[in-house]
Amino acid sequence: MANVRTRSSDRRKSTSVERGSREPAAVGRTRKMLVIAQDPSICNSSGQPLTAEIEIPAEDLSPGPRGYRVHVVDYDASSGVLYRPAPFRDPKTGEPMVHPPDLESPDFHAQNVYALVMRTLARFEYALGRHVSWKIPGHQIKVVPHAFADANAFYSRRDEALVFGYFPGRKGMVFSCLSHDVIVHETCHALLDGLRERFVDPSSPDQAAFHEGFADVVALLSVFSMREIAKHMLTMERAGLPKMVKRGRIDTREMKVDSLESRVLFGLAEEMGQEMGGTRSQALRNSLGIQPRSDWRDDDQYQEPHRRGEILVSAMIRTFLRVWELRLADLASPDEEDYYVDLRRASEEAADAADYLLTMAIRAIDYCPPIHLTFEDYLTAMLTSDAEIHASDERFQYRKHLRDVFAEFGILPSACADPRSGLWPDWTKPMPAAARSLGPRLDPVELRYDSLRFESLQRDPDEVFRFVWNNLEALRLSRDAYTRIESLRPCLRLGPEDGVPLRETVAECLQWLKVRADELESRLRIKKPEGMPDSLEINLQGGITLIFDDFGRLKFGIANRIDDASAQTRRLQELWDHGYFSDGTQARRFAAMHRSRALGASAHAKEVW
Questions:
Q1: The whole model's pTM is what?
Q2: How many CB atoms lie within 10 A of CB 302?
Q3: How far apart (Å, rounded) are the C-alpha atoms in residues 517 and 529?
Q4: What is the Cα–Cα distance from 297 to 589, expressed in whole angstroms?
């Protein structure tokens, strides 16, 4: 049994909060909390760690802090000690703890990790237009700020927890629970696991890389969306380079993509996570070192999931830089030869660009196929989800820059996308003639809606299954496969500019078909990998994401189907080459390859998918 101890910072008079009572119910929709903006290695001009005041959803909190979605449990597995829950309010003032942080205080550690987990959850829910559930039996995920003495941090579905380690560094103890991008990265794993459970199933190299790449993208954009970080990036000095900011203003003619990358982001990358070691991936530094090239898939190093995920990170960061450059140029007045912009405005433009891309990156999850994801699918999903909210892309051209940058990496919209726009075809509109010429998967189809109830279609998986069953052939799904509605989620998304609501219902439909290896070609025209035993049972998977509009009509059908012979042949060959079907390894999750990044030399615990 764990020992229960009082924290060193708790040696004070007992209060009602410490005795276990909750704080008074929160007033208003949000509350402000103070957090470390990136990690303690990034300091302001006075040498203090850079902090930021963030807004998170207000709720009734118990000591821990413990709310309705997040429960901070300070248990140290290395020492077997369970510390008393941290009070949310300062016992001296009775106010929420938003004063300058004490980096040695376990109470502040608990507050910091709680606030950033809640901020990330709120960003997902804003982008998706609904509540997002964890992939755990309960409603509250456990967050353990001092879980073990090791340079590691991870999400564990089995333990229903986000766990953060600590370890000795060059200047004292290093706590991963004080690193913004580490906290957001692991929270992103937990949220993505709740949104798309099958993204950790054995599949293509892109899907194996996506969990890590997406978590890094969200973490970095979350950091850049903080104005304090943007200002720090512009004002920090690099050896051998002149200052960018003079008398509080910055010359936009110097703020080009190459300069922003080499002087701003590389400078931040050198500071970020200096003490973190194996806890983080140095995703920013690694992604900036990747130059755009279309033949990266032929390079063996990009067959490893972490390295492959850095391609996605690099493409998104370069898109961010191009949009930032355009936004800065939009502020200047070249007609009056006034190219100088106030530092505060330049920082705001960076934060706003990152925040917009962050919303695009998260919202795109709803527009992805439920399984066998590729980078091409994800690019198409980002373009489509943004076009649904913003018909015009003229001002800052987020979609154009995404397409251009991803094309430099040889990543084009999906073959099933509209060839002109790069968007998923809208099934409620006539199909362009150019799209029809690409193949039968893009032909317009007649769908049956008879006997369907619109209200039930929004909340009843059986009603969605009835729609699927009545339209198996039109949706080109297999009638022989086991079919199930995996999830059903009504959404209400709001455009940030006009506030016009977009109501949609998102459903995941999955199919499974078990066949012997010697039946693959005769039944499905799928080529069996050379050397695979004929008697081996193969469990094929496929599925379709169904997005219904506010009239109950199917607007998008985003599928990776069981009977896609070429894709399944390629997928089986890749799994066979990685040894998935041999030596009993079929029982393991393919995504276990992800864990190789974060594990230290003497890990006390490991992430289990």
A1: 0.89
A2: 19
A3: 9
A4: 23
Q: List pLDDT tens digits, range 292-317.
A: 999 999 998 998 888 999 999 999 99
pLDDT of residue 341: 81
Q: Which amino acid is at 375?
A: F
- Amino acid occupying residue 426: D
Q: Answer left, alpha or beta for residue 295, where phi above 0 means left and psi between -120 and 50 means alpha.
A: alpha
- Please give the angle made by the CA atoms of 482, 504 and 57, to the nearest 5 degrees: 110
3-195 adopts what CATH topology? Elastase; domain 1 (3.10.170)
How many residues are recorded in the chain? 609
Euclidean distance between CA atoms 382 and 502, whole angstroms: 16
For residues 22 and 102, is the Cβ–Cβ distance under 8 A? no
Question: Amino acid letter at 215?
Answer: A
β-strand 172-175 against 161-169: which pairing, if any? Answer: antiparallel
3-state secondary structure of 600: coil
List the beta bridge partners of residue 81: 3, 76
Alpha-carbon span 140 to 248, nearest angstrom: 45
Please compute, for residue 301, the number of CA atoms within 13 A of its CA located in the half-sphere on the CB side.
Answer: 7
- Taking the C-alpha atoms of 292, 293, 298 and 302 in order, what is their torsion angle to the nearest 10 degrees? 0
Which of 12, 101, 10 has the alpha carbon at shortest distance from 63? 10
The helix/strand/coil state of 37 is coil
Residue 213: both structure tokens together: 């790449």
Distance (Å, whole) CA 76 – CA 245: 45
Segments in the chain below pLDDT 50? 1, 8-27, 98, 434-442, 584-606, 608-609
Q: Nearest to residue 74, comparing CAs of 1, 162, 133?
A: 162
| Residue 304 confidence (pLDDT) | 86
- Residues with Cβ within 8 Å of 196's Cβ and at least 6 positions away in sequence, in order, are 365, 368, 370, 373, 508
Which tokens is 184 given?
Answer: 């957001």
Cα–chain center distance at 344 = 28
DSSP 84: P
